[in-house]
Each structure stands twice: as C-alpha cells, then as structure tokens.
Predict the structure.
Amino acid sequence: MDFIPVSISAVIIDERHDRHFIHLMNRETWDLLPIGIGFAEATAINRALQGETFPRPLTHDLLTQLLVKTECNCVAIRITDEENGTYFAEIELEDNSQEVSRTILLDARPSDAIALAVRVGIFTIDVRTDLMP
C-alpha cells in the first residue's frame, strides 16, 4: 500500500447545518480530502491547533497522558480505508516500556487519530494514495 503525506488545511465547524469537516491537503498537488467529523472532534482538533489548554484534561489530552505514562510514542497516523463515505484510520505507536521496543497499531476514527496527533506534535498524516481525489 502506498501513502501520500498530507497536512491539515482547515477544520470546518458549521453549527448552523450541523456539518463539520477536516480538510487534508496534499502538499505537492494542493488536492484536498474532506472528511466529515463530529462536532466534538472538530472542536477538539481546532482547540489543539490554536494551543488552547484547559484546567482539566479533555479526552484526547487524557490519551496523550496515557501514552507518556506508559512510555509509548505516537509515531504515525494513517488514513487507511473508506467504505460508503466512512473513513478509517490507524494510529502507530512505539512502545518503549520494555528492553526491546515494539510497534502497536490501533484502529481509530480519523478524527480521533488526528485530535491525538496534533496534541503530540504530529502534523503530517499519511493517506492511502487511492483515497486522494
């Protein structure tokens, strides 16, 4: 499987029509891949991109803390598939808690994977080549 590196181009929050999207952009061709996401996830991604912090951890902040405490690093986010307009993602973790590190792959919604990624400093997302327009 071949992947294309993309970056977050925009987070669209349309409360009036209750439609929310994240636009991923191919940095070479400027092609956009819009992915529909929920309001909570759109808000979480947008707030993380703007550097907002809260007195208590939100869900994706909690996941970030869990990675740190268990000595895991988030090393990649991939958009791996699409079925009937629903996209699928994969989070690649590196577990460094043992003498020999190991790779862990987690199935995830793209919105959750991206919300985690922006919190841990991953701003490049890999999209399966044939999913890009």
Notes: The longest helix spans residues 39-49. Residues 56 and 62 are 9 Å apart (CA to CA).
